[in-house]
Amino acid sequence: MTKSFSNFAGASDIDDACAAELEAAGINVERYEFLRGKGEVSTAVVGSLHGWSFKRAWRYWVAEGPGIEMAVAEALHARHGRAVRVEGHCGCPSPREWGKGFAISSYHVDTPEGLRALAETIKGVVERASAVVDEKPRTPDATALTEDQTNRAYRLFYGEGMNLGQVAETLGCGLYALTPWLTAPSLRIAEQAITDSKTEKADAYANLDDDSLDAIMEVIGSPKLYNSGKSVMREWFLRRLRVLWQLPEPPAEEAPTSIST
């Protein structure tokens, strides 16, 4: 009997187990702490593979990506259709029945064997496409974007609201060159936003002086337990701020100095 994934609903400390499941299937492991508690299970681990994302649910993996063409999806379904469920459908319909001829871009995967089979299918799609592209002469339209161009493409598309044609025209490239950028995990954007936010919070924390802290404490109040002095209240507030903003503890020599009042 094929083994199913464990039920992680309500479980804690499962990051390593989730990572091991992805690694066993040949899927890239990524960790983003801001994702913890956002899904059905408490983990910071997600997977990525050629534009596909993999997120752990209570007892299965949710896979979403650019799509698998009908013939290939049908072949996968013939071997693993009960464990690699099209669009997460409990009735396990075939790709042709459910997708009406369109590519399948979402699966719920119940077993390690099924997850590995899906990963191998995705890799096969990319390998076959790469072989066809490699047989063709390289053209300016097929030139990969530089890192600077990729970053600028993000800003133009998400920041300035340009459409893809306008982005390609501005960068002096063809739409084909934008393909790897379009299929890049959206977590890249989120990760940068989180990094920028943490930097801003760290700067704000570093610039808090005693007068500012005292003014803040008067506005928000403080626990009666700590009403023994201003310095204690400041330290209580700074500790809470470090926890809330996920900032590191200061070295002992840089810790706030208590001044009795």
- Average pLDDT works out at 79
Rg (CA only): 25 Å
Number of helices: 10
Residues in β-strands, percent: 5-15%
Q: Would you count the extended β strands for me?
A: 6
- The SSE string, one letter per element, is HEEEEHEHEHHHHHHH
Helix proportion of residues, in percent?
A: 40-55%
Low-confidence stretches: 138-142, 255-261
- Structural class designation: alpha+beta
Major sheet size, sense and barrel closure: 6 strands, antiparallel
Q: Quickly count the domains.
A: 3
* Coarse shape: flat
Strand order of the largest sheet: 1-2-3-4-6-5
Termini separation (Å)? 71 Å
Describe this structure in words.
- It is flat and about 70 Å long.
- The chain starts with 14 loop residues before the first helix and ends in a 16-residue tail after the last helix.
- It is an alpha+beta fold and about 260 residues long.
- The chain has helices at about 15-25, 70-80, 95-100, 110-135, 145-160, 165-170, 180, 185-205, 210-220, 230-245, and strands at about 30, 45-50, 50-55, 60-70, 85, 105-110.
- It has ten helices and six strands.
- Strands 1-2-3-4-6-5 form a six-stranded antiparallel β-sheet.
- Helix 9 (about 210-220) crosses helix 10.
- It has three domains: about 15-135, no CATH class; about 140-185; about 210-255, no CATH class.
